[in-house]
Amino acid sequence: MKVDIKTREYTTVSEVSGPLMIVEGVEGAAYGEIVEIETPTGEKRRGQVLEVREDIAVVQVFEGTSDLNTETTKIRFTGETAKIGVSMDMLGRIFDGTGKPIDGGPEIIPEKELDINGYPINPSARAFPAEFIQTGISTIDGMNTLVRGQKLPIFSGSGLPHNELAAQIARQAKVLTEESEFAVIFTAMGITHEEANYFMRDFEQTGALERVTVFMNLADDPAIERIITPRMALTTAEYFAFEHDMHVLVILTDMTNYCEALREISAAREEVPGRRGYPGYMYTDLASIYERAGRIIDKKGSITQMPILVMPQDDITHPIPDLTGYITEGQVVLSRELHRKGIYPPVDVLPSLSRLMSGGIGEGRTREDHSGVSDQLYSAYAEGRDLRDLVAVVGEEALTDRDRKYLQFADEFEKRFINQGRDEDRSIEETLNLGWELLSILPRAELKRVAEEHIDKYLPKGE
Where is the ATPase F1/V1/A1 complex alpha/beta subunit N-terminal domain (predicted)? Predict the structure, then answer.
């Protein structure tokens, strides 16, 4: 046994299990402390203390535990937590999941070193999210509006175009009412090389990379790295937002891969599993990520989050979407049925919801008719969808003229309002005007959710 008290270096590894190492005879180790590991071949790796009991420390190794043994592996406890060096030079750069540049550019010269675990925003210091963020996508802007400081996840399914939607939002998102700079932090966890190349090519070709900072954890990177990737991204976002007054949109894809990494570590620690094998503390862990979004009173900047997750077997009651829904303020749900019809983006507006929408729309923010148009479109589309089910039973001949109008409305709503080009950036004016065009299909007497003065002002004449 070798212990160097000055540097706290140990060669007392007693066990290696999955991504974890157990070190014995440790003095003064702390939870969350960063350790440096030297393999028998001289390779340097990093890890983090997960658990401390008496003189034993459980360490998770970021680069994986291959080639480690229990005899000659050296462990040095640094006495510091995980930190990232941040700078405004990070805009337009691409980093791996541990914050190292992978775009061939120079190393970042940090202006500050910040703890990646961050600090929760004091509830009494939070400002209510109230400014509209335009994504250029009608189903989000018109029906499930994203506001500055909100957490609005996208619930997708395997094979659905959530990656294309994420890239489109990253390219198009903008704040209309403020002059402050707008930035996007794009965080990918557990994605394939093909998906990574798609995102990079898209950002570079469209010029969006200038205002995007990318953190990229690939599928063949160690799963343990996925635990720190979103925290690296959010620490950078907090620096941009609260020290440089920027509006930051953080896109996190795919949170399902993050939760799978949590489950893997929990299993390696032999913890008692919760629902479907996920750790019982997954709710708390997810909250430690999602709750880092928001606005602070007397600060100009803000952090808005759009986590993206793939629902296993399209099951919205699965623990990952279920817990995410509890913590966040709504959800945008993608539909396999709309995708089969060739509609992009296949957003199903009926189960989708933005709980903070009312605070970010209306006169001075979007337009005075926004709330009424959204409610009327939702109501008419829901009725048209119900009538489709009825037609399957009784046939179209049994429908009234009014019913046929609603059926026509539902079809046109999907073809023209939900469906749009992958590069089509619709302004909120265009979205609302399109909504009025579709409402003109219905008899005026059916428009009960919009104000009469708005009907007179915006409904296309001659209808």
Answer: 13-79
Cα–Cα distance, 178 to 162 (Å, whole number): 28
List b or e across 143-155, with b for residues whose CB sees 16 or more CB atoms inside 10 angstroms: bbbbbbbbbbbbb
Pairwise CA distance, residues 151 & 145, whole Å: 11
What strands lie across the sheet with 132-134, from one edge to the other?
Answer: 146-147, 132-134, 174-175
Which tokens hold the place of 257?
């891969």
How many beta carbons lie within 10 A of that of residue 268, not counting itself?
Answer: 18
- Count of beta carbons in the 10 Å neighbourhood of residue 43: 11
In the predicted model, is pLDDT for residue 399 greater than 60?
yes
pLDDT for 7 equals 57
CA of residue 154 relative to chain centroid, distance: 7
Domains 3-80 and 84-360 share a fold: no
Torsional class of 456: left (φ above 0), alpha (ψ -120 to 50), beta (otherwise)? alpha
Containing H/E element for 75? strand 74-81
DSSP code, position 273: B
Closest CA to 178 of 263, 91, 300: 300
User: In the structure, what pLDDT confidence band is assigned to residue 88 with cuts at 50, 70 and 90?
Assistant: very high
Q: Strand runs (DSSP E) across 262-341, as ranges?
A: 294-296, 302-310, 330-334
Tokens of 63: 């680069």
| 8 Å CB contact between 217 and 118 | no
For residue 118 the two structure tokens come to 């961050």
At residue 179, the pLDDT reads 65
Structural domain boundaries in the chain: 3-80, 84-360, 370-458
pLDDT at 333: 96
How many Å from the N-terminal Cα to the C-terminal Cα in the chain? 88
Closest among 336, 101, 340, 131 to 216, alpha carbons compared: 101
Q: Which residues contact 378 (CB under 8 A, 6 or more apart)?
A: 143, 349, 350
247 SS3 class: strand
CATH of domain 3-80: 2.40.30.20
